[in-house]
Design a protein that fits this description.
110 residues; mainly alpha; single chain; 0% strand; 5 helices
Length: 110
């Protein structure tokens, strides 16, 4: 298995879970807040999906960071403390670093 493929899968899963977490978070913002909190079941379900998707987003981000052999603490601190901008920034930068490493290894003579 190609290591860059496993890194990309982890980053892709992390990005998809970030989108899901942001969608759930949007349901608690005022235009949609009344409909979300009108039913306790809907509010609890949305909160559970938000919690699980956010935790899994961080787990998959950590897996990608470890596979790229980078500092886990620094990248997760960026993602957690500056959520959601830090999470998006971490995904973009890690993807860019992965593409850069792949292009460097492709141009390097054997």
């Amino acid at each position: 298995m190609n290591p860059t493929a496993s890194e990309r899968r982890a980053l892709g899963a992390s990005a998809a879970l970030l989108v899901l977490a942001l969608a759930c978070l949007a349901l608690f913002i005022p235009p949609l807040n009344d409909a979300t909190t009108a039913s306790p079941l809907r509010a609890v379900g949305t909160a559970l999906v938000l919690t699980v998707s956010l935790l899994l987003h961080w787990v998959f981000l950590g897996i990608a960071v470890r596979r790229m052999q980078r500092s886990l603490a620094g990248w997760l601190a960026l993602a957690v403390l500056l959520f959601p901008v830090g999470s998006a920034m971490a995904l973009i930068l890690l993807s860019w670093f992965g593409d850069e490493a792949a292009s460097d290894s492709a141009t390097r003579p054997a």
